[in-house]
Prior knowledge:
2 domains; alpha/beta
Amino acid sequence: MVAQDRAGPQLPLALRHSPDQRFEGWVGAPAVLAQLQATAAGESSDSLYLQGGSGSGKTHLLLAACAAAEAAGRHANYLSLARVRGHARDALQGIEQAGLVALDDLDALAGNRDDEIALFDLHNRVRDAGVALAYAARALPGALPLQLPDLRSRLAHCTLLALRALDDAGRAQVLRQRAASRGLQFDEAALEWLLTRCSRDLSDLAALFERLDHAALAAQRRLTVPFLRQVLGA
């Protein structure tokens, strides 16, 4: 399983992304999870379009699908399109030689005609090869500022999976799961303190939790309100 990236060497996803970004760590709509699981397992060849705002779990699901596909013996390619704006044709060359292609940050290419043509060509190659394809974007296909009508049409025919940001109960569940997977004790009062004083964006919370995890491991401490105050400041 390879994360395609022109900015550096190609490395297995397992070496580049947190093991928390797996289906087992997903908290959200079960229907969306079921669709991604079927795609990762090769049971569905539908092209998918994950749409949701920041922190809704789009990248988590794409990486989880790639990990599950690899576990099932199917090669998977993940690529953030934000990293290849302006040179998408080179970056997308040959990426369809996999069982699953996952393209994140689709919004980043919208408006660049050359990149859009490269993506349109890739979409056709992927579908002709019978390869599973999953996009992720903040905006719906019709709201993207695309210059290429044919690309908009292809995206509009994908199966739409709309994601919504988690509420505080969902965010707390994510943090509990991550703590449990590391053998950490996360006091409920500490969870409440964290969620009421820090960013509610899930990606921000995930980065913050990694900081707390390292600090707790070094200090051999539970995640309590006094410890959070010590690490993060009042």
